[in-house]
Design a protein that fits this description.
Layout (H helix, E strand, L loop, with lengths): L3 H16 L14 E2 H17 L4 H17 L17 H13 L2 H4 L1 H14 L1 H9 L3 H13 L35 H14 L5 H21 L10 H13 L6 H13 L6 E2 L5 H11 L7 H14 L29 H13 L3 H17 L23 H18 L1 H4 L1 H21 L22 H14 L6 H12 L17 H11 L6 H16 L10 E3 L3 E3 L4 H15 L1 H4 L20
Antiparallel strand pairs: 1-2, 3-4
Amino acid sequence: MLTIDRLNRGYEAAVEALLGESIPAGHWEGELSSSPLSTATAIAALQLVVRERPERATEFHRLIDGGLKWLAENQNVDGGWGDTILSHSNISTSMLAYASFQMTQGISAFPETMKRASAHVNERGGFDAIRKRYGKDHTFSVPILTQCALAGLIPWKQISPLPFELGWLPHSFFKWIRLPVVSYALPALIAIGQVRHHHAPSWNPLVRWIRQAAVKPTLRRLSLIQPESGGFLEATPLTSFVTMSLVSMGLADHPVATLGVKFLVDSVRPDGSWPIDTNLATWVTTLSVNALRSDALPDDQVDLIVNWLLSQQHRQVHRYTNAAPGGWAWTNLSGGVPDADDTPGAILALLKLRHNSEAVQLAVEAAIGWLLDLQNSDGGWPTFCRGWGALPFDRSTPDLTAHTLRAIRAWQSCCNPDAKAPILARRAERAVVAGFAFLARTQRPEGTWFPLWFGNQFAADDENPVYGVSKALVAYRDWGRLADPAAQRASNWLLSAQNCDGGWGGNLRTPSSVEETSLATESLLAVPAARDACRRALDWLLDHVSDDSFRQPAPIGLYFAKLWYFERLYPMIFAVSALSRSLENADRLVDSIPFDSNMPNDSRPVVTS
């Protein structure tokens, strides 16, 4: 039975769990899933260092052996590996793990593991399947094949050469060409392009001469864009690919390789595995703040979080992507890159915590300007940089567009921009019109939007329209536009996607998860005809809070190049957000009408236009 008391108890339990995850500095760091793919690439990089520098064998063999043991213990029953221990096997991770066992002579130590892995990659189509999976985007297919070549599994000539000599050119040049790698992958372009040239130079003497002349200057550029931590994007795979490429060329002592190795050694976990990235501290902190009710955080923690978030805003042109000042990255660490999802999240969190602060208002104004400059000509927002081309992370995407629209709305509501920043306010008004036009234009006929950074492994093509629709609907809600035809189509579709148990998965007929159920519930709370659906969903969610299973994460996150991850805090954060919003709408949810949690799906109401 759904009652106010039950809602309150569930919310308080979820809040207690979430607050217990904050660190003494006040914010949240979270914990990303261990990654078979990251572990395989780190092992390969360290093994190559051992070959070039035998004196480091004792130091690194412990890490290599620990990683191999972890991979063997976490092999899926079909013989392959997924991107997390909860993920289905895929050809990319399976091939990288197989190559790592080959490179380290793990074939003799783990013969049964290798036998099953060999059968799996052959059954999945081997190298051709990797090329097919990534198509024209060479950002990840070429690095995977490079590790396979370093393991002796494939000839170098079968790997597409990357035009690393372009790294010699000014950054502004890249937006005018259709480079077969995306904007964040310049380190891979340089290092992997060079290793391919080193082992299999072009037959064309002019191309060969140009590339040889570009080796030293592009290595200097690689040094300039490497973060202080050594980790490019704080990502183990990208850093591993760069490191193994340099070491393979005899550059084990190059500063980039040395710093990359240090990053890998510092990133290993006690169980022998590596995560996909160091952390999503900024992202999970802003998500947590925006999920909690205003009175949930003590004043001293509010001060700590506000000051910490303000200190994370990028104040200079980013040396990696050339992004202008004003945005936030997903992490506070040096490898982060400002983007159009973390920046709206930070805006919403700061305005929620301290909207009257002059420092906050100035930071938010700079961030709004940054986002407006990033908006594409189609009205939507991309992830990192405007004008990079037609590859996924450079295209406009509905979830980022919706998040940005919410941030602009919060800024308008809190900061009186018409008086304080009239020019920026007028730009924002035009951007909002274009943003909603983009959402209406990109909505699928059935009412869905597909996000870029989230998916569902149980859905067709790994897509997660429940996430996309939920994020878009809250933008329509915040702007008072739930009566728009696009919002009504989205609400209807989301209601139709609810499972018989009351929860939601990523798409129709996919298993319910805490994350997706929470997102869908929160987005539908303001839709009058969705009341009974929300009550059933809250009953499902509160059951999971009461037995503590709401802490179990699902691998719904997509990292660069379609890499799955899960974040331990996601289910707690999303549950808190849904329950918080439910309490604000409790008068519409809880009344004297009996609530039957076993109501069949075909009894659900739908929104009509």
